[in-house]
């Protein structure tokens, strides 16, 4: 894969050689290569200012995970048939704190996908200003259509191997696609049994009765909308009265809809992998939650039950005209064609609720059209930041109110916004949140790595 912005920038030789080194060593991992490229593309000026980064091979070290675990996950379905899945945990970088990042259960998961997510997580976590390193894990297990008992057995088998690698000061997983409150419960239960320790700080996203934090469920979606609001404020606008389209209908999407509605926006569409729904009056959030969280049904059911809503099978949710677009489903879901449609329809802001949902070509289209663009590392960091709030409450054996947790989240999102803005300005690209996020996250990890010696 060539550098995406070859024509725009001359790359520092250290950047070029680190990228080539990584690409050679990880030839069959396109998502990982893409994630690395998206960061490295913006780092040349930082390497020019800090020759010690290249001397100490900080980029090469960053691209090589500290540890990669791959393991067998055998389990039995309700019919008694045996299945074998593959489990992963990539412990990418712990210079700033214990490895922190979610677990994804989805058939698309492979080592390259987990590495892309783990790599992104390093910079995202650094941007929060908190002491967490980057890691990610998961399995190619497909939870769709599986019974509760099957999910429970799978989670127990998965944790039977993973538990020996975890610890509140070592590695602290959480949820991601396919891993929500139910799965976290089964995972924590099995950890507790095997470790013979009630160690709340070993996993986040726990239930409120047993060490969870208020607002953790809502945090990623709320955070991405709060980030969007801050970007809009900077140019004298607000979410109030805007028409919003969200992609996906999982945890991030649902709570993005909720927060956008709180702030006065009308959210007119959301989607799943089969199609999208359009509801010009504004999505009925209670109905959406009932269908997705309680019944675990497809989004098409929404249109069957809501007068005036329509379902479009297949197609692109980005065809629905909007002022603000919040890609909140999965990687590479918004391509250059979709970005052009958004621009043509007058979009003013795009913020990534998911990890790397916008292709590099689409980012380029949006950047050139001067659309406000919040990259996932910054915009969706509210989830992991609230995981740290959960760890703080666990350490103090306390539990905060919803208002308190939400105000901490809002402050964190505002700080992340300001860190990106400040770094972008410092590097001569005011308003470029992609560059700002990459540079600010990188500087924090790189200086910790330098300080801690060659490890
Ligand atoms: N999976 C989420 C993310 O992508 C949350 C991770 C966490 O809370 O540790 O950041």
TrEMBL record:
CDD domains in the record: NAD_bind_2_Glu_DH (cd05313)
Binding site for substrate: 100, 121, 124, 175, 387
Residue ranges crossing the lipid bilayer per the database entry: none
InterPro entries recorded: Aminoacid_DH-like_N_sf, Glu/Leu/Phe/Val/Trp_DH, Glu/Leu/Phe/Val/Trp_DH_C, Glu/Leu/Phe/Val/Trp_DH_dimer, Glu_DH, Glu_Leu_Phe_Val_DH, NAD(P)-bd_dom_sf, NAD_bind_Glu_DH
Organism the protein comes from: Nocardiopsis sinuspersici
Any one GO BP annotation for this protein: glutamate biosynthetic process
Subunit structure: Homohexamer.
Sites where the protein binds NAD(+): 220, 251
Catalytic residues (UniProt): 136
Name listed for the protein in its UniProt record: Glutamate dehydrogenase
